[in-house]
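Reading a protein record of the kind used here takes only a little practice. The integers have meaning only within a learned vocabulary of local backbone shapes. With that in mind, consider the following protein and its fold in token form:
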Amino acid sequence: MHVHFSIDDVFDSLIDDTHPMIDFVNDIGYPLDLYCFYQNKGHNLSDVSTNNFKEHVRFGAHGLDNDTPPHSQTTSDQKKVFDKIYSEFDRLGFGYSKQVRLHEFSESYELSEYFVNNGIERIFTTDKNVLLWRVPDTLKHLIKRHGYCDYNGIRFIQTNIRVENLIGKDKNDVVEILEDVCYKKEYPNVMTHEYELLRPEVREMTSFVLDYLTKKEMYYG
């Protein structure tokens, strides 16, 4: 069993070296991905001067900014944004993630060759009951049954654990949810957002979920 953890809407922690997410992520010590915007609040990635994160952290493209999800752009404009993001990653020495979750769960399958050429093997899809937004409905049964499907030369993986949705639940109920995902899906993938990790309760729940799943991973392999 493999556990995947990633954080969406990342930007502020790249600019602000006092951001509370930095220490939290660095202390996790388990491989994880940060999916980054190109710009936010008058800054863009060209303003980033250092890498605040340790070597277990990898980086992926998320979109232009919070107001411009990839699905609202032409494929040409999406590619221009992703090119700028990966160019800045190269400048900063950021290691690439092998998967991405695009903003608002955009399913940019038209760019599958582009992603594959950049070493990206998988795109995460929505955790909502709709299962897929743009990938043909005929593949929904595969997502529902296995948690993944292949389309246009790339694999789409269902997001199945959103940490902030677990807040307020009893820990036994959380464990039941995690066990259900482990039993039914190809592998558990855990996500949250940079802004959510400003909340202590989200950081605590993230630690609980990752601790439980990684111990299960070490035991079962």
Q: What stands out?
A: The first strand starts at residue 4 and ends at 10. Residues 4-220 form a domain with the TIM Barrel fold (CATH 3.20.20.370). The two ends are 6 Å apart (CA to CA). The mean pLDDT is 93.
